[in-house]
Every structure is written in structure tokens, then in C-alpha cells.
Design a protein that fits this description.
Layout lengths: L1 E2 L8 E2 H11 L8 E3 L1 H7 L3 E4 L10 H10 L3 H6 L1 E4 L3 H13 L3 E5 L5 H9 L3 E4 L4 H15 L2 E2 L6 H21 L8 E3 L8
Parallel strand pairs: 4-9, 5-6, 5-8, 6-7
Antiparallel strand pairs: 1-2, 3-4
Helix pairs in contact: 1-8, 3-5, 3-8, 5-6
Amino acid sequence: MSFRTSGPFPPLILDDVRGAQKMLSGVARTTGMEGSRYLSSLVGAPVHLKCENLQRTGSFKLRGAYVRIAGLSPVERAAGVVAASAGNHAQGVALASSLLGVRSTVFMPVGAPLPKVAATRDYGAEVRLHGHVVDETLAAAQEYAEETGAVFIHPSTTRTSSRGRAPSAWRSSNSARRSGPSSSASAGAVSPRGSRSR
């Protein structure tokens, strides 16, 4: 069994998902699925929502960040990591880095929500405010990585971060099948994949 990913890398296989699931045990919560009568009535089929907002950082981004940083070599860990985000990925990288004992620097746009900036700092990252849109912030973080040797942790487009998110999607799919009707074609699951704010 393999899973499609959105990057220029080979598809994930079931062993990837199981390995990430084991790695995330005790780090990320196993969040539940909640049915939505309203959304179900809109689409004419059962819809289930994956409650990743109940993670410690408030989103699923911790999963991918943790698996990505945990997979770094000792030399890469010593160089630290850098990321860019308006909030959710920032918090995921900050917490994952702290849990793994890796120094993190996170670039955030000047107008990032103050609670997310504060939470990112509280999770242990050095926060640098730069740019007014995320693309400017991403460019600054990539430049910092080139100058310092820190490993750039992209918000989404790496095979490793996809491995981190895969166990949640896999459980969502299985839960929806179990709780929905016998025809899997008429059952749906919604799991957040991110937003323009990264």
C-alpha cells in the first residue's frame, strides 16, 4: 500500500506511516473524529472532522516537524533548524525542536498573530519578525539557512514531513470507514492540510 504525497519524492509506503506513528507516540495526541450533521447534509454523505486542533500546538503541524527534525543527523542537529511561518508551522517546529534538544530559529511575518508569536517563543524558538507576507518570510529563513548552515524545515514539501502527517490521515480514513456506511464511496473524512498562512 502506498500514499500519494505532494512533493517530488517517492510515494509513502505503509512502513513509512507505521514508523512515523511509532515515533510520534507520546509526542502527538491521537485525536478523535467528530461527525458533522451540517456538513453531511450539505454533501449528502457522512462527513467526519479530524480534531487536530486539540494538539498541544493547536494544529497537526507538530507531527511533520517532529518527524523531520528527529530524522536529522547529529551534525545537522548541532547546526540547528530554521523555519518560516505565520503561526501553526512555527509552533510545531518550536515545540518539536525543544522536545528533541535542537536549537530553532523561526521567522514570522511582522503582522503574525501575537498569541502565535508568543506561543512560538514559549515553545523555545528564537523568533525573528521579517516581511509582511509569508513569501518574504520564507525567503529570509532560506537566506538564514544558507548563511548559518541551519537546516531549513519547510512547512510542507518534504517526504519526511509528509511521513509525520500520514498516520493522522491514515487513522482518519480508517475511522471514517468504520463509522460510516458500508459503501466507502459515500463516506468522507476531513483532515486539515494547512492554509495560505502556513
